[in-house]
Amino acid sequence: MTTRIAPQAPVWVSDRAEPCRSCGTPIVWCRTEKGALMPVDAVPSKAGNVAVSRAGSELHAGVVQPRQADGMRAAGRPVFLAHFASCPHADQWRTK
Ligand SMILES: [Zn+2]
What we know:
By secondary structure, the chain is of the alpha+beta class. It is built from four helices and five strands; from the N terminus they run αβββββααα. The structure holds zinc ion. Zinc ion is lined by residues 20, 22-23, 25, 83, 87, 89.
């Protein structure tokens, strides 16, 4: 495995990307620890705090602490941003 300076989304994330129904940004749906589905930006973010992992046919999302997120990026692992945080139409998500 090669280490990249700017981690990119692994294929198993980018392959599942679909446009957000509100703003068209590519997102992937991940299962949280609580079992809920959460939209996550398909492109890793410098401000990201969500670690995405593969779990069978699903993706799992886990929120990490800022220091942990920095460590992951330093190790070449992508960190993602919850789409709730970046969607310009987040109001629509929250009131749903
Ligand atoms: Zn959106």
